[in-house]
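User: quick one, sequence for these tokens?
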């Protein structure tokens, strides 16, 4: 992890230097934010870091789900078909698409957009089936979810994604390949655009915000696709020209600067949690010595009580709201009750030590984050102490 951190740190620093980041770029505009220099410079830097043609990095993108919804609605038209090749998407994205129990009149399905999926086989892509389906040339967009979401499958390492992208291009040159990159940034040496993806989406409440950015998400990729996304976010004909950064530029820049180190700390925290909970007899994934694709660590806790107690312990081990006791509750976009523990400096930040899970069998805790390894370790020990009570 230290080696990967150094590689990604060099990538970020070189982007800052090559793009000639200046102190003046830390200043923000209000109002319309017409052609704001700082915002434009941040997007130039993101393009450089991700090796993309263009990018959209905005505080007006509220979350990863919001950025994904903007991207899908920008690139798909009535009658188009999107294909998920990683099986069922994350809960909140199911509502966006219109395939979950909760049906919205604003979903893609409600606008006449079709959805198909091909499941993974033993945590890898079903390449023959994917190639056979894409030969028809009638799929507009392929969606790849790098992280596991609330499923039991493994998250996908960049090498597997690279292999399937090459296989797709053998039979279909035109289909748009979109990667949901949430939780995966800077965990490995390469990012999805470098291996052939057309567009990549993620949240600044996760890896790239480093616990410093207090809002925002990003979309990076081909220039013509970013233009469509920008027009969906703001207005046709206006696109990227407006959007004030509202005093976020310093947070965005500093967050990206610290991100490689914070992601490494988060992974180290996950490795510690995996090993100690495995020694205590719980099923964990990934194992402590497995290759990592994202910052998420899952712990199969067997009972609702264990899941609730573990999350409550994470809250007790947090720097903010450590006296608050979380309980399962209903949340928009989720079919089951969910418990979420996040005593974070930024509300909902999952690069900070946090833990959540749906109240359904097999009662899996999805733990992520840790701004430093030391704080992460202390939080996990508190969670174990609370669960053993």
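Assistant:
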């Amino acid at each position: 992890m230290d080696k990967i951190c150094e590689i990604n740190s060099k990538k970020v620093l070189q982007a800052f230097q090559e793009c000639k980041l200046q102190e003046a770029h830390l200043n923000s505009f209000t109002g319309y934010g017409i052609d704001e220099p700082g915002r434009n410079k941040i997007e130039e830097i993101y393009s450089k870091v991700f090796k993309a043609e263009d990018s959209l990095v905005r505080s007006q993108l509220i979350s990863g789900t919001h950025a994904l919804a903007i991207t899908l609605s920008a690139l798909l038209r009535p009658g188009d078909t999107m294909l998920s090749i990683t099986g069922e998407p994350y809960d909140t994205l199911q509502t966006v698409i219109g395939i979950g129990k909760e049906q919205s009149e604003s979903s893609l399905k409600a606008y006449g957009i079709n959805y198909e999926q091909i499941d993974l086989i033993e945590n890898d892509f079903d390449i023959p089936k994917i190639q056979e389906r894409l030969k028809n040339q009638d799929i507009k967009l392929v969606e790849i979810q790098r992280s596991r979401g609330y499923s039991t499958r493994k998250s996908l390492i960049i090498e597997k994604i690279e292999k399937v992208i090459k296989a797709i291009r053998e039979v279909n040159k035109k289909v748009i390949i979109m990667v949901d990159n949430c939780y995966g940034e800077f965990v490995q040496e390469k990012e999805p655009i470098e291996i052939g993806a057309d567009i990549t989406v993620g949240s600044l409440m996760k890896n790239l915000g480093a616990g410093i950015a207090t809002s925002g998400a990003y979309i990076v990729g081909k220039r013509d696709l970013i233009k469509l996304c920008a027009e969906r976010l703001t207005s046709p004909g206006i696109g990227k020209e407006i959007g004030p950064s509202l005093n976020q530029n310093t947070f965005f820049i500093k967050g990206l600067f610290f991100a490689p180190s914070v992601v490494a700390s988060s992974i180290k925290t996950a490795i510690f949690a995996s090993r100690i909970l495995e020694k205590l007899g719980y099923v964990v994934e990934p194992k402590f010595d497995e290759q990592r694709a994202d910052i998420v660590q899952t712990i199969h806790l067997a009972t609702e009580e264990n899941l609730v107690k573990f999350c409550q312990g994470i809250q007790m081990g947090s720097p903010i709201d450590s006296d608050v006791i979380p309980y399962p509750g209903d949340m928009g976009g989720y079919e089951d009750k969910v418990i979420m523990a996040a005593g974070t400096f930024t509300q909902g930040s999952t690069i900070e030590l946090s833990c959540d899970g749906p109240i359904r069998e097999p009662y899996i805790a999805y733990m992520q984050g840790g701004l430093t390894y030391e704080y992460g370790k202390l939080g996990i020990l508190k969670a174990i102490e609370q669960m053993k009570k």
